[in-house]
């Protein structure tokens, strides 16, 4: 019998396995890079700003008032130096501040008569941005492994980048095992509706993969399991997620299928409840098989426990970090096992509460949850105390 590995050790093992075979960087145009990962640090190609710029509409002046108006600088213009005392140029927001400028006077703080600005005082905070005020040339702004967001793209564009060196999204596949599954209609007569086939691809996309292959259900025979795994490999999947069949019952064929394909286990059962019969194995071609238990809540425990760290390693990101939430109620432990307990965040007090309908075969609790509170082995969660939280994968704009 295989002894289960500690939950934290299992996460580290699959993260390191993914990191060892992370995809090579590729250059990607800025507009196509959202959701990818920086393969190299983002460093400035120029100082930010690259030249002094006015932050207001007004006058760039040299010397004491009054100032003779000798020109205009709009955003995008190259500004000639101010060389004579008592001169100024009209300047627009974003305009290049001429060399020789003493200060910038706002339009509303000045008096103009004909071709002269006869009075004006600068404000206490200068109304222009100095060269390199935001960043110096060659400064590292973001490290390799940073997820690329619209904010990162905008920063890269401001630095002068046209492309970014990125780790591409891992390609994934989903195989749902089980003769008992219906793919449409109302369950009954001993058969249940497949809830994982429709939902897991969305979770995988939220986790940062491209789902390139999906089959549900796969018949409960060894031949069909082996054929389905080979088809996922042929479709180009780097991570093949399967559901069900992770135990050793009469219709559990995943372990024999992995043996027939020559797979090597990285993790085989984890000391976590629910969902302990989870696994990650690697095929001879380098592809990973993530065996997720068939009970829905256990499936998602395995997703956050093993699949997310594996994907982080493959993309060159840091291992997914835990957040923290204060518990609003007690949560029991699970003896020598880590307990991952579904919690919801109360909108009034912001605390985490265990959800009802959280049995291993239930999805109602999951639909109302933000993630899993971590109750360590031998411990229990106490109301009013903080607990680490494993959040469910989210898209930008979704709330945790």
UniProtKB/TrEMBL annotation:
Its cofactor is Mg(2+). Keywords: Magnesium, Metal-binding, Molybdenum, Molybdenum cofactor biosynthesis, Transferase. Pfam families: MoCF_biosynth, MoeA_N. One of its GO terms (cellular component) is cytosol. Residues 173-313 form the MoaB/Mog domain. Pathway: Cofactor biosynthesis; molybdopterin biosynthesis. GO terms for biological process: Mo-molybdopterin cofactor biosynthetic process. Gene3D superfamilies: MoaB/Mog-like domain (3.40.980.10), MoeA, C-terminal, domain IV (2.40.340.10), Molybdopterin biosynthesis moea protein, domain 2 (3.90.105.10), Molybdopterin biosynthesis moea protein, domain 3 (2.170.190.11). It catalyses: adenylyl-molybdopterin + molybdate = Mo-molybdopterin + AMP + H(+). One of its GO terms (molecular function) is metal ion binding. SMART domains: MoCF_biosynth. SUPFAM superfamilies: MoeA N-terminal region -like, Molybdenum cofactor biosynthesis proteins. Belongs to the MoeA family. Catalyzes the insertion of molybdate into adenylated molybdopterin with the concomitant release of AMP. This is Molybdopterin molybdenumtransferase.
